[in-house]
Design a protein that fits this description.
Helix content: 25-40%
Bound molecules: guanosine-5'-diphosphate, magnesium ion
Number of helices: 17
Number of strands: 37
Strand order of the largest sheet: 18-17-23-14-15-22-19-20
Distance between the termini: 58 Å
């Protein structure tokens, strides 16, 4: 393993088409990871995404790729650009230490980049920005820099700028080193030539250099003193200060290039190593112990890993992507799943290196690798060494908002369909499969139309399943309007053994709380004879009772469940009895609590030239949309609003028509809201009508 200071766990964030794939290809080429440069061809970005996955063959590459660059081990964690894949973004952000934002020098900051950027700010992730495609017609570095400063990061600071525009883009000036770089097209830009800054770029250089030193001296007194001495500062003096300012999120260094023309990518790789944090820069991590959040420092004898992604590989089986936060995990170690209490054995530890899967004997904190062996583990769970009494915080995955009916083509296709759906569900924490016991319907749900489209594509093409799918529908939820108490007693003999439990629950609506779109569970009883196993069974029963609501068996949300009384019988109480008694009590209580529907609401951000904004807002108002904010920017305006998902089917096409194709948008799940009475009736009619 590389020295811990030399590890960089980074993500590349980009709006679709900004050039993430092209840039990554170059990075892998320069690092010797691949030997032939692949080109991305024009076409549908979704297809590009899927074909990419297929071309690469082994699935491991798309989730994390490791390579060495100038003594550093860089782990690139995949961060998809499309908002339908926010779960992917969320889990990458959880484990990476720094990120590169790739922007198109023509399109500037697109709404989706803004969404991902905002997500990364919530996780305090230091970033550098790379303005790509400067060879293209209409590309403008300064405008994009301004856009980044205005919309994403007030600390955006150019540390490079281009010489020449569009087709004449010919070199990159490094403001830190005070030199210009020219690129040799023959060798995919591998032969980078360093020259003096030409006369034509001197004024611009002086301007950017002065700004850079000004900003940095605000953050570092010793730099200030050196500037006052009025002597030229060297890169060795500037880089550490710039790095510190970047890591503390005061500054976002902005770089430039054209990945397609092989200009600038190697400088970007240098910057990743020089400016983004290593695991040592921020070693402390958060844990949850007894329901409380606190921070801990890594310790050699406390092995702790977060499973941030799961993939089923045809050949290897279940792959668990893990970031180790503390200790060392060795091949063959037995760890405990902190959620289930089950022991899991790590049979293999893999890392993708030089185009091959490399088997490691051990992995230590700060690093990222893939485990093979553990079976019963889900995304977001913690694997820990013996005696550890806490877990790493779970990732927040947004709710599924769209659902669809799936049917096997023939009866014979049923098993394969269910089996494949289960595997997809295993991999993707925002994809859900539910089989309605009464109607026999199989309903899948996910984050958006595109998300389900991709999964159906995989179902058919990757798993070879013959299935028919229905039209996408809104994934409604059920909730309650009244508070109700209910007591349930379970007292039965099963296989010669007595099972007893009596549980009283109180359920109440949870409307305007922080915990929106979740259910809250509280155990209000403290009794000595309630073992941890019983407590776990009661909690499982309580939350399980919310899996199917009283109206249409849709999942129940925004409910608070309190267990207010529990009775046991010596020698007869069992986990089974507690689980069933609690879930029955919750179900019964729900059916008496005036159930109604919740609908998913998204936050939509629309960017449009001013002339169309009036029409767009009028249209959104007609869709029960609530405008939250309008921001005026140089070339476009930004409208932020809340809209019910049910009103947004086919909205992309509509927006295109309203703006002659010039507006763009992004959305993310915001919350569930009560549906208006009129719509409630329509939902009932439509659902009954099936
Ligand atoms: P992604 O969607 O972010 O992965 O973007 P891709 O890497 O797939 O690039 C989208 C399109 O832009 C492809 O047709 C690329 O060839 C093209 N492209 C990427 N980088 C550049 C660049 O620097 N200059 C030009 N002219 N085209 C580029
Ligand atoms: Mg791509």
């Amino acid at each position: 393993m590389a020295n811990r200071e030399n590890i960089r766990n980074i993500g590349i964030m980009a709006h679709i088409d900004a050039g993430k794939t092209t840039t990554t290809e170059r990075i892998l080429f320069y690092s010797g990871r691949i030997h032939r440069m692949g080109e991305v061809h024009d076409g549908n970005a979704t297809m590009d995404w899927m074909d990419q996955e297929q071309d690469r063959g082994i699935t491991i590459t798309s989730a994390v790729t490791s390579f060495s660059w100038k003594k550093r081990q860089i782990n690139i964690i995949d961060t998809p650009g499309h908002v339908d894949f926010t779960a992917e973004v969320e889990r990458s952000l959880r484990v990476l230490d720094g990120a590169v934002g790739v922007f198109c020098g023509v399109g500037g900051v697109e709404p989706q980049s803004e969404t991902v950027w905002a997500q990364s700010e919530r996780y305090n992730i230091p970033k550098i920005a790379y303005v790509n495609k400067l060879d293209r017609m209409g590309a403008d570095f300064e405008r994009t820099l301004e856009d980044i400063r205005e919309r994403l990061s007030p600390g955006a600071l150019a540390i490079q700028f281009p010489i020449g525009k569009e087709a004449d883009f010919k070199a990159i000036v490094d403001v830190v080193r005070g030199v210009a770089y020219y690129f040799d097209q023959e060798e995919y830009g591998s032969n980078m030539v360093e020259k003096e800054i030409p006369e034509e770029a001197q004024d611009e250089y002086n301007m950017y250099r002065e700004l850079l030193l000004d900003v940095l001296s605000e953050h570092d007194d010793s730099l200030m003193e050196k500037i006052l001495e009025e002597r030229e500062l060297t890169a060795n003096e500037i880089v550490p200060v710039l790095r510190k300012a970047t890591i503390s999120l005061k500054v976002t260094p902005v770089l430039c290039g054209s990945s397609f023309k092989n200009m600038g990518v190697r400088l970007l790789m240098d910057a990743i190593g020089d400016l983004l944090p290593s695991p040592v820069d921020k070693p402390d991590f958060q844990i949850i112990k007894d329901g409380k959040l606190s921070t801990l420092a890594p310790a050699d004898n406390v092995p702790l890993a977060l499973i941030y992604k799961i993939q089923i590989d045809k050949h290897v089986g279940k792959l668990l992507y893990a970031r180790v936060y503390s200790g060392t995990i060795k091949k063959g170690d037995t760890l405990t799943n902190q959620d289930t209490g089950k022991k899991e054995r790590v049979m293999r530890i893999l890392q993708m290196h030089s185009n091959k899967t490399k088997d490691l004997n051990e992995i230590s904190y700060g690093d990222i690798a893939t485990f093979v062996g553990p079976k019963d583990v889900k995304t977001g769970q913690t694997l820990a060494g013996r005696g550890v009494k806490f877990e790493l915080p779970k990732m927040n995955f947004p709710e599924a908002v769209i659902s669809m009916v799936v049917e096997p083509e023939t009866k014979g296709d049923y098993d394969k369909l269910m089996d494949s759906l289960k595997r997809l569900e295993d991999e993707d924490p925002t994809f859900f499969v539910k089989e309605d016991k009464n109607s026999g319907q199989i309903v899948i749900s996910g984050m958006g139309e595109l998300h389900l489209e991709v999964l159906v594509y995989r179902l058919k093409n990757e798993f070879g399943v013959n299935a028919n799918v229905g039209t996408p529908q809104v994934a409604y939820r059920e909730t309650i309007l009244d508070s109700v108490e209910f007591e349930e007693e379970f007292d039965r003999e099963l296989k010669g053994k007595k099972h007893y439990a009596k549980v009283k629950v109180q359920i109440s609506p949870l409307l305007d709380s922080e915990e929106k779109s979740k259910n809250v569970y509280e155990m209000a009883v403290t009794k000595g004879d309630l073992s941890p196993e019983f407590l776990r069974a009661i909690k499982e029963g309580a939350l399980g009772g919310c899996a199917a609501g009283p109206i249409f068996s849709w999942a129940v949300r925004n409910v608070k469940i309190e267990v207010v009384n529990v009775e046991t019988k010596e020698g007869e109480s069992s986990e089974l009895a507690f689980s069933i008694a609690t879930s029955t009590a919750v179900s019964r209580a729900l059916s008496e609590a005036r159930a109604t529907f919740l609908e998913p609401i998204v936050k939509a951000v629309v960017l449009s030239p001013e002339e169309y904004v009036g029409d767009i807002i009028a249209d959104l108002n007609g869709k029960r949309g609530k405008v939250l904010d309008i921001k005026h920017m140089e070339a476009r305006q930004q409208v932020v609003c809340e809209v019910p998902v049910s009103e947004l089917f086919g909205y992309t096409t509509r927006l295109r028509n309203l703006s002659k194709g010039r507006a763009s948008m992004s959305m993310e799940f915001l919350k569930y809201d009560l549906v208006p009475e009129k719509i409630k009736e329509a939902i009932i009619e439509k659902t009954r009508g099936y």
